[in-house]
Specification:
2 copies of one chain form a homodimer. By secondary structure, chain A is α/β, with parallel strands linked by helices. Chain A is 47% helix and 11% strand. Chain A is built from 10 helices and 7 strands. In chain A, strands 3-2-1-6-4-7-5 form a 7-stranded parallel β-sheet. In chain A, helix 5 packs across helix 7. The longest helix of chain A is centred in the last third of the chain and has 35 residues. The first copy, chain A, is elongated. About 2% of the residues of chain A have low confidence. Chains A and B meet through helix 1, helix 7, helix 8, helix 9 and helix 10 of A and helix 1, strand 5, helix 5, helix 7 and helix 8 of B.
Chain lengths: 262, 262
Amino acid sequence: MAEALLAKPVVILNAPQLAHNIGAVARVMANFGLETLRLVNPRDGWPQEQAWASASGADWPLDGANVFENVGDAVADLQLVFATTARPRELQMPVITPRQAASELTQGLGQGLSVGLLFGGERAGLETADIALCQAVVTIPIDPKFRSLNLAQAVAITAYELRLLELDAPPPAFREGPAPADGAAMMGLFQHLEGELETAGFFHPPEKTPSMVQNLRTALSRARFSDQEVRTLRGVVTALSRGRGRVLEKIARQKAEKAGEA
Amino acid sequence: MAEALLAKPVVILNAPQLAHNIGAVARVMANFGLETLRLVNPRDGWPQEQAWASASGADWPLDGANVFENVGDAVADLQLVFATTARPRELQMPVITPRQAASELTQGLGQGLSVGLLFGGERAGLETADIALCQAVVTIPIDPKFRSLNLAQAVAITAYELRLLELDAPPPAFREGPAPADGAAMMGLFQHLEGELETAGFFHPPEKTPSMVQNLRTALSRARFSDQEVRTLRGVVTALSRGRGRVLEKIARQKAEKAGEA
């Protein structure tokens, strides 16, 4: 084969029927960082404009796609290939999950192997003769009540699992952006709020004040407010307790003045 | 809401543009055992024949799909909603992986909560104002070199993770404390607070109102307040805005009366 080194798993589509599905596969390959696409006997020939039109700009897997006459040729240079099916077959072949497949393929890559994923066409799926050229069957755990999984979706699931391992699955930090405010800032917010609530007669009856304070603090602590948010909320407390008061004060003054005039 | 019990996560599509994508979403929902679809302002109206044509027989999510005017209405009966985006936003909201999301939503279901996943439309994705009504952002770990993820693929990834956990059938987790309030209760709190802040002149300058509202909602959404806590906080808002007002009103009246006497 011309390809010197395959740093990532190859995606092989056996007898794909619809060009827009091939395009959709290219798109999802690009989403998850896969690059090499192989087509075995695309029904309507190759290249097909509609594939590029459906790839939303993910042209490179299509531009570089090689066409093969049969699965045997398409996997000829690969050392580890898994066949993806929605439906388990009567075949003496290990059946693994997409997650296990991703793990094994990633390990294989790490050992310098050339690896691939084989997908069947829209209608027929994979023949047992084709599966027999692979080292395991990957079964996507779909609901047996509705097995008709779109080709690009099947590629997406396995490519997603591969991507997670490529990233070494570092989950994003709990929060992007500023850190939560410290205890002193939160205490400042609490005391400001509670002081205003005290003035407003919120804590009633008085003996319930400690538990009411505690419940409020508990609810607000859970939000993990940032410093900026604490400042905003203190502004909220001030606005509510002073602003509204000013409005009512004005109304009361006007009323009193009118009463005085009458 | 009419729906008595939501045994599985609801899929909410905000402003979907293409009927065939809505159909593709229904198909992948059926693949992974999801049932309830909600549409917020589908661009071309609803129902649309093309959606059914693209669902490959997965008619039931489409047949049962309800249409909503805005995200707030669509999440009104849900207690835990995650917003799915390909691109992290500048928003103070926890960012989690699809796997973490599936785990939290499955736990929520086990605790009897109504839960959902919110997805943005094809072009615009989600507005920060919509994300502000959710409790976390789910980011699919796609390659930053090609972020254009198809809507149905985004649903597929998260639905697949949910399906894996459903098959694992984890024992219902013990819930600490009462359930989170639903979207309607939270919206009631937001609008009450914002109304009082508006009266108090908090939103200044006026053109900043939307971003100020959004930041407040985001911070408060994260806390996952219970119904009781929502009631308490509405009491806080009332006390701050009225209670203090009453005190000042009284003082103002006394002053005015004294001035009248003098």
